[in-house]
UniProtKB/TrEMBL annotation:
PROSITE patterns: PTS_EIIC_TYPE_5
Claim: Manganese is one of the keywords in the record: no
Transmembrane segments: 22-47, 68-90, 121-139
InterPro entries, per the entry: PTS_IID_sorb
Domain of life the protein comes from: Bacteria
Protein name: PTS system, glucitol/sorbitol-specific IIC component
Coiled-coil ranges per UniProt: none
Taxonomic source organism: Pelosinus propionicus DSM 13327
Cellular component GO terms, alphabetical: membrane
Alphabetic keyword roster: Membrane, Transmembrane, Transmembrane helix
């Protein structure tokens, strides 16, 4: 009987810990994300949606900007999952590679721009807690994460484009 009571208490403590974590997010990270989303939306409105679209179309003209600038802009301005809608500016043959580059950038962006992908923020915050516990600053981690992310998305976009072109050539 005592074992059952201990299991029930342990079960409730698990949910209490979850509730404490959730309350921390409601008081901390959620307002930050809302403010960042509002700021990004305001910037888009100030610049003009048409100008943002023209910039996105120009970014598709060469392989470097197609798999670096365009995914970065789409993730920063639209966040996940709306960022994939920038794929409309990309030629059909480049869409799989654009998607691969964009989806690959959704994690590295969270350290500097947490509004871009709230779902990945939980992973980043776990890593950040470990880094903070070791006494290292988070700023340099976020910047390194971001820069390595840019390199990775270019490589993934380039490789995926070549694989897709090869597979398309075999179809014909």
């Amino acid at each position: 009987m005592e074992l059952i009571a201990e299991l029930a208490n342990g079960f409730m403590e698990l949910f209490k810990a979850g509730a404490d974590t959730f309350a921390g997010w409601v008081m901390g990270i959620i307002p930050l994300i809302v403010v960042l989303m509002t700021a990004v939306s305001a910037v888009i409105k100030l610049i003009g949606e048409e100008r943002v679209q023209r910039l996105a179309q120009k970014a598709t003209t060469n392989i470097i900007t197609r798999y670096t600038i365009l995914p970065i802009l789409s993730v920063l301005f639209l966040g996940n999952p709306m960022c994939y809608s920038f794929g409309r500016f990309v030629e059909e043959k480049h869409k799989p590679a654009f998607y691969d580059a964009t989806v690959s950038f959704l994690h590295p962006v969270t350290g500097l721009f947490p509004h871009a992908n709230g779902g990945e923020l939980f992973v980043y915050m776990g890593i950040a807690a470990g880094v903070t516990a070791l006494g290292f600053p988070l700023g340099s981690l976020a910047v390194r994460y971001f820069l390595v992310g840019i390199i990775v998305i270019f490589i993934r976009g380039f490789v995926t484009e070549k694989i897709y072109a090869s597979m398309k050539a075999r179809e014909q």
